[in-house]
Amino acid sequence: MKKNTLFTLFLTLTLGFLYGQQEKGITGYDNWLRNWTDFSPNKAEYALPTQILSGNISKDTKLYKKDIYLLYGDVFVTDSTTLEIEPGTVIMGDFKTKGSLIISKGSKIVAEGSVTDPIIFTSSQTVRKPGDWGGIFLLGDAPINSGNNLILNYGLDTSSAGNISYGGESISSNSGVLNYVRIEYAGRRTKNFGYFNALTLAGVGCDTSLNNVMISYCDGDSVSVLGGDVLLNNFVSYRSSSDDYKINYGASCKITNSLAVKSPYVSRAVGSRTLHVLNHDENTVAFTSKIKTKVEAENLTLLNQSNNLENDIKIGLVNEAIYIGDDVTFKLDKSVISGFNPAVIFDRKIIINNESLDQIVFTRNYFNNCNGNIYVKYKPNNEDLENWYGNRIFNNVYSKGPDTETFIDSKSLSNPDFRLRINRIIATNND
Question: Which domain of life does this protein belong to (predicted)?
Fold first, then answer.
């Protein structure tokens, strides 16, 4: 009995040590990407739409799995209305009218899919491509650092400015639920307003539930957070042409256990990062508001998938993973950054001193196969930053390893597994 007790104690301590060492990047005893995600959405076949959504939805409405819906033009959910979507429902964005769904301030979307029956927003085209349709907009009345009741400037077709206003004083406002949802081929480009984003969260409050959302092949940003207070959990951005997660205008944003996968053959050569964190637009004067952008990210996996990384960097196809603007608070913990050029760039307006570095924290991260780690924009010498973040108190790790040795199975399109593998030990989280 004593031997069994000692063995159990030894095993517990050993596993605890190993798991504690391998908790970087996306975690889980099981691959949580399985069943509800799709890394080859172009192969999916759908029937033709049976229902058309257009104009304003101004009374509580439910969409059902038995039907396929077409977003025709800009579709607004208004007048404190709730749009509920049944698990397994397919909604197609119309190509000709850049179909989009806008949840106006005070209204809600309840898109509660399941791991075996996700809700799918996709293109109406037979041959689907990035930018086939607009995207999804959630507008709330949480604070923005540039003022209240701002107007969403995307050229959306509405008869009332109230339908496209966002921002206010309610941090805890509730715009609904997104859970087990896929958004594919969004990000339509417009002549006067640029690219749409797959998912825009504008002034969204912290009572909104955002979990298990996959965005793939977006021609704009996958997720754009404009102010507000949000938690993104179990998010996936796959092969976006632009930024994966762009956070701006005084947003308070937590991102946990989430993934961004870049491809140098899809992403734009300029301005395409996994994380783009700003307090105000670049090349503008900082806002005087006391509300500052704050990002807390934990257990992220940020990966650039390249067939020949050295050559792709040489010819300018690979960007930095993370861009941090001035006047923001940023913390990245227990995350993996692999295959970028370099891993992180600070805006040139950031003065490198104790005060600024106390606001930008990197702890317990795994920097792998990057062409440099942390730099200030336009400054080739990063010795001060290397010394600071390389200090043992931050416990960051630097390595050079191929994807095949770094991740369990990042090459599979049918069932990829992006959890970290070091010495064949799967990344888990015992929290």
Answer: Bacteria
Quote the CA–CA distance of 425 and 429 in Å, as a whole number: 12
Helix or strand run (H / E) with residue 61: strand 61-63
The structural domain count of the chain equals: 1
Length of the chain: 431
Q: Is residue 218 part of a domain?
A: yes
Strand spans (E) along 56-164: 56-57, 61-63, 68-71, 74-77, 82-85, 90-93, 100-103, 108-112, 119-123, 136-139, 150-151
Determine the 3-state secondary structure of 122 from DSSP: strand
* Spatial distance between the Cα atoms of 135 and 224, rounded to a whole number of angstroms: 11
Q: Tell me which residue range forms the domain holding 101.
A: 2-426
- Order of strands, sheet of 374-376, starting from the edge strand that comes earlier in the sequence: 56-57, 74-77, 100-103, 136-139, 199-202, 223-226, 245-248, 275-277, 322-324, 344-346, 374-376
Q: Are strands 417-422 and 425-426 parallel, antiparallel or unpaired?
A: antiparallel
- Give the pTM: 0.93
Fill in the amino acid letter for 415. N
Per the domain annotation, does 431 fall within a domain? no
Q: What is the torsional sign of CA 24, 28, 29, 34?
A: negative
Q: Model confidence over 83-133: pLDDT tens digits?
A: 999 999 999 999 999 999 999 999 999 999 999 999 999 999 999 999 999
CA–CA dist 400, 319 (Å, integer): 18
Helix (H) or strand (E) holding 321: none
